[in-house]
Structures are given as structure tokens and as C-alpha cells.
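The pair is quoted verbatim as follows:
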Amino acid sequence: MRHTISVLVENEFGVLARVAGLFSGRGFNIESLSVAPTLDPSLSRMTIVTTGDDRILEQINKQLNKLIDTVKVIDFTSEDYVERELAMIKVNADESVRAEVLRIADIFRSKVVDVTPRSYTLEVTGAPTKIDAIIELLRPIGIKELVRTGPVVLGRGPKGWRQAE
């Protein structure tokens, strides 16, 4: 089962390495990891996507909470949340397919962020399923490069980190 975990941590040197070490040392796989400072520059928020059964997730949560730098851990698997991901896709765009690439970009509300005589680079944001769908449509045209951020999540409604503590 796929789990999305959000971890609020002290924004200090080595915290990311300790979290990654926790996962690797126990044989847990991180499918994606996104880290950035919050409104409070002394704190960072990690969004971690992993897989495993409920027993594994319980162990992960306990281990994350034991880390000194951890402020709060939220497992969004059973929560109501908004999930978004960003991808940049460099696709072949010679004269014969430029119009088709632009139509696909328009359908997915993506932006053309770079143009060369032989390629377009698209920026697309949305749910991971949306990213997967545009990739599958662009694949036959010829994807030259692809980079994805992995998902980031926020709980729905007024409750935030400060109110949840």
C-alpha cells in the first residue's frame, strides 16, 4: 500500500541524512522525497512517499518520532488531503508534431517554458495521475528528458500544523 507521510523537522544540518538513514537502515524504500523550509525558517517540511503494510508504516512512524529533530509526523494515507506534483518534460518538437504537442499541453493546462528548433520543454503540475497521463500521451512523440518533483501534500480544511500540535 502507498503511504504519504509529512514530517515537520528542525531545519538543521544532517536532518535529511538521518531520515534517509532511518529508512535505508531498516530496509524501507523511499519512492519520493521533497524537502523545503516552511513559513518558519527554523522548520522544514518533508513529504515522503513509501510503500508497505500497516505494520511497516507503524514502525516508520515510531522511528521518525524518535528522531530528536522531528517536531510532528502526519500520515496522510487515511486523511483528506490535496496532492500536487510538478514535472518538466522535454519533448521532440520538429515541424511535423509541434501542433500536436501544443494541443496536448493545452489540454493538460501545462506551460511551454522553453523552445528550441527541435524541442519544447513543458511544465505541468497536478495530481500524479495527471502527470502520468500527459507522459503517456507524449511518449509516442518522443520524450527527450523528464524530471518530476514527487508529490507534496497539504491537509484539507482549516487545520494546519500549528493547530494540529
